[in-house]
């Protein structure tokens, strides 16, 4: 347990009261090392195993929980079979889809190992094997009185040396992660399996049943699951994709429960949540909800409208951009939910009150004043500085460079410069350890690239960028496109874009990959217009990066000082703090429970097969497959029916605390058996990145009994049922 780990269950910084509806507050994305301190609460909720087992990353069940790098998955067989969400595998399904064999539409099931398909360049399964506290080692490297840039460099240099030592054994990927905003650092070592294969995915009409209409909504009837397999070399170690590779043999895998769970039961979720912001200042809350989210929502809707127009009647292009459409729809709806949730929440008021209470506590004691007095004001000043460039970050850095060809070109140009340096002096992301990933990114480009679509999106956002305040413009970019002030000559812009797309060879994978080994001199001499633009932008790119690094170093110092003060204050009140999510392994727990979203409305915690049929219209996104509807109509519920439901349960609600990255996380019962997969939250929970509200915050899970029923009664995936030990024959 770390020095800041809680001795018992704590109240959140944002919701400092126990739920009036339950005995225990279940908020918190806990580090596994913190779980023994939660033993009494877990046991009271029904845990049937020693909580200490949940803290051991190299033992069952925690070593069966794996990361895909952007989602979570879990091993469910001794042959490296892993289960995750359908939406987490969407890119893999898309990679293997063509107009003739559209796996997104039709689904996919490999009859045996020989039919399993490579998931695509960049696919990964990461198995956490070791976590080491390196806080003292990193803090010792920061020179006394270091400014922001020197602080940033000291931390980065030490992180690189720690990672290099950790990766001396081939096949592992190591990263240093900050906790409590830089108060603590941990070195995490993961086995990096890079031959991942698609095994089974239901048709989109099951895996994304309800589509964007039902996204974030309840009641839900979505079969959001898929199966992958990890492959390694004959020696059992990670290897490049090859026909000679064999299924990975994990040290443990989850037992799949056929009994399921009921209302009120304890459930736990282990996974890799991405980012939460529960320890941010009130002014950051205000900016995010009143500017950032509304702005991004509108821009993403514009993006979606362009994609819809440009891919209309073009199935090949529609397949290429299917994953983008899914991500953008999800983000736009998420942002709208954030805005609506904030309007109903008093999170800003509570944050401001907490900051005032903290300031009063600091000023009440001379020693605390000496240590912490300026912490809040320093952080507020930095936040003001950062917010002053928000238009540039949004419209220029995120959108005005939104061209696949420019993205590839900028990476190639940067790589050519970095390779001139000794490896340890290179920018993280461009070291020798990163070359495989760079090559894979360049290989993936054509799986989501159509020149006409790319051009239309880029053109739109160049024009949007031109309208931002002039002091946030980038001169080199303006010069290239002839942008003067806030004015764009659209005819000249079209001529320039036509020349660039007609003249580039980067749309060809072989030519693009050939530039990976080019020197800076060779790239500078290239006549490819996208490489020329990337070279032209390189000086301003570096200037912006230097500014960001200096700011990052200042933020690291200010935020860590603020967190030290806040933790000390809360500890004085017998409260403790779990770190914000940062893509590291966390465990959260709760119970299966419905909720009331508004007056006179009560949602039950389970949905069933009848709801699938009731929603069916025969038109997307409510176009359930005929064979599924026939099985429902004939009452072929089999052994997976839930008595009090009358049929097979499809989805259920729980009070577990989750966020993005938790998608695909295994839902475990009191015995740590697999009873579902977390795939979404309810609409009222969208604000959960910032605030947890016990009465209405809910996670949505696909019931494992629904998955098993589809495998047995609809898709005939008996080979996989046997492999998981749940077949009847």
Taking the sheet with the most strands, its summary is:
8 strands, antiparallel
Count of discrete alpha- or pi-helical segments spanning 4 or more residues: 26
The first-to-last residue Cα distance is: 46 Å
Shape: globular
**Helix percentage:** 40-55%
Structural class: alpha+beta
Proportion of beta-strand residues: 5-15%
Low-confidence stretches: 1-24
Average of per-residue pLDDT values: 94
The overall strand count is 20
Please sum up the structure shown.
With 729 residues, the chain is of the alpha+beta class.
Any overview of this molecule?
The protein is of the alpha+beta class. The protein is 42% helix and 14% strand. It has 26 helices and 20 strands. The strands form four sheets. Strands 1, 2, 3, 4, 5, 9, 10 and 11 form an eight-stranded antiparallel sheet that branches. Strand 7 and strand 8 (184-193) form a beta hairpin. Helix 8 runs antiparallel to helix 11 (347-363). The longest helix is centred in the last third of the chain and has 44 residues, at 529-572. The radius of gyration is 26 Å and the shape is globular. It starts with 38 loop residues before the first helix and ends in a 6-residue tail after the last helix. Residues 1-24 have low confidence and may be disordered.
